[in-house]
Amino acid sequence: MNPNFRTLDLNLLRVFDATMAEGSLTRAAATLAMTQPAVSHALKRLREHLGEDLFERVAHGVRPTPRAEALWPAVHDALAALRQSVAPGDFDSAKDEVQFHLAMADSTAALLATPLVQVIEATRARVNLRVLPLTTRDPTRLVDSGEADLAVGFFPDLITRLVSQGDAAHLRHQRLYDTRYVCVMRQGHPLAAGPLRLADFVAAHHLLVSFSGRPYGLVDQALAALGLKRRIVLTVNQFATAGRVVSASELLAVLPESFVEATGAASALAIREIPLAMDPVHVEMVWHLRRDADAAHRWLRRQVREAAGA
After folding, report:
1. 3-state secondary structure the chain
2. Higher pLDDT, 6 or 41
3. pLDDT for position 104
4. At what angle do helices 66-86 and 11-22 cross, to 10 degrees?
5. What percent of the chain has pLDDT over 90?
6. Per-residue pLDDT tens digits for 68-102
7. β-strands 55-58, 252-256: how paired?
8. Residue 208 burial class via C-beta count within 10 angstroms: exposed 0-12, middle 13-18, buried 19 and up
């Protein structure tokens, strides 16, 4: 039997939307100012109406079924459009409590978190931020699923794809700032005495920052194009770890220049130009189209832009 839309309580869709966004009955209940049993009951009613399971319990919350994943974009967009029609620009950061999830690398968070918190404190905004670890150069899954409201980082392949899709893209993006790759080593390293030559760079031992843990990066691509290969002794997934290790070893590391200060070891590091042609690093923020017109999310993106100096 097909579900009858005329008998559907539309409040159930608000509960469904909040649960999808939060990934937890407890957090959804807090967002909706409901009790957790009430949220659970509403989802049960929606499941009975649709005749299909929408969530399954996991260790730290609930996981949507494929049916829920397929249903959510239309439901969320419809609710967002209704909110904008009924109460356009209705977000007041000093009155409306909201929690945002931002996916960022550790050094990006180190650069942006302080000015973001300063704004929240200075304006007494009722805004809470959760920083999620960024473990990929393509945050599409995080943003699509609603696990992250905003992803900030260097996403070259994704941005190229979104530019080619134009208005048809379901993700939106905006450039925050540009930086460049530099080579860092400990102060007093033998290679810090003068300009870094390509032969010495290749012969040295290296540390690679890789979100995925894969021991191959953009530098290795550039070297491969020249028929060269370096030895990567250590692969880590945090820039702070990279700074600490490099400052106390003979390893070299290639980092975005703007991240060197955020490693916490800048005073112990020497910075040299890379003896390779490397494209600049374009740091972008990426969000889902369904968040584009939401007043609270516009507020968040404005604060991130200002924190980044964009």
Report:
1. CCCCHHHCCCHHHHHHHHHHHHCCHHHHHHHHCCCHHHHHHHHHHHHHHHCCCCEEEECCEEEECHHHHHHHHHHHHHHHHHHHHHCCCCCCCCCCCEEEEEEECHHHHHHHHHHHHHHHHHHCCCEEEEEEECCCCCCHHHHHHCCCCEEEECCHHHHHHHHHHHHHCCEEEEEEEEECEEEEEECCCHHHHCCCCHHHHHHCEEEEECCCCCCCCHHHHHHHHCCCCCEEEEEECCHHHHHHHHHCCCCEEEEEHHHHHHHCCHHHEEEECCCCCCCCEEEEEEEEHHHCCCHHHHHHHHHHHHHCCC
2. 41
3. 94
4. 110
5. 63
6. 988 888 888 788 777 666 655 578 898 888 899 99
7. unpaired
8. buried
pLDDT at position 189? 97
> What percent of the chain is modeled with pLDDT above 70?
96
Look at residue 144 in the predicted model and tell me its pLDDT.
87
Residues whose CB is less than 8 angstroms from the CB of residue 184 and which lie 6 or more positions away in sequence, other chains included: 243, 246, 252, 253, 254, 255, 260, 269, 270, 271, 272
